[in-house]
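request received
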Amino acid sequence: MSFEETPFDAYGGADKESVSSTLTPESIEEHAQTQETIMNEREADLLRTLDTIQPETPDQERILEALKERTLALSGPRLDLKVAAQTAALSVALEGILSANSIAPEGETYTARLLANNPELTEMLMQRILGVAEGAPKSVLIDSAKEVLAEMEGSDSKLFKGLALRTAERAARALISASTLGIGTVVYDSAKDLYISLRERSVSRTKQRLTSSTAIPAV
Amino acid sequence: MTPDPIPELYEETATMLSKEHADAAAEIRQGAIALQEAIAARGAGEKRASLLARLFNGSV
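response:
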């Protein structure tokens, strides 16, 4: 499947023109931004519709509240899509940085920016680095990964959905070092695991939704 | 680095998440329509009951 054959039209009419046929970090981010806009508009439209409904009985009030809660829960797949895009963009960016055989400062800055917005992936990457670098003569790398994880824990970054730039820059340097030291699969393995996790979350949410959907039609 | 299949994984995952979002939103919309119809039907039922009451009371 290529981006030209994107199936998103079926789920909200994504703008095909916004997706480049050449996959670059920018095109992936742009693609994700288009999807996010569609989702945001869909959620806002639903909330506007629900706001016009004036329930007349306690049962109707209960149902309206349930519908509003479900609308707010739509942020789940929307935010997961953002994480998926950042992960893909990071992977493609790192591949480009490493295949260029020289690490330009902007490559590190870009990597840091992506990591700053993705604590979940950063944590996974740092732990993966620790796992594969343990025992090897790469103590600086291990120390960097440990420091990033400690900073993340101290700042509760996952709770606030973002990393301090300094932490992200340190993580970016560790990641690029890991890749140049021959631990290149760390990004692919971590990204793959993250995608599996995102898909499992989606399946779980869908099951939960279908199980509880009997509550809504009982109007 | 390993040849990167991540963009393909991204597309598949993004499709799944987009579908989840669209399906869930469609269900909410259906629920909203059902609720609106129930409120309207209740209102119509009350009007009908009111009309019947007025008929039987001889005020119409």
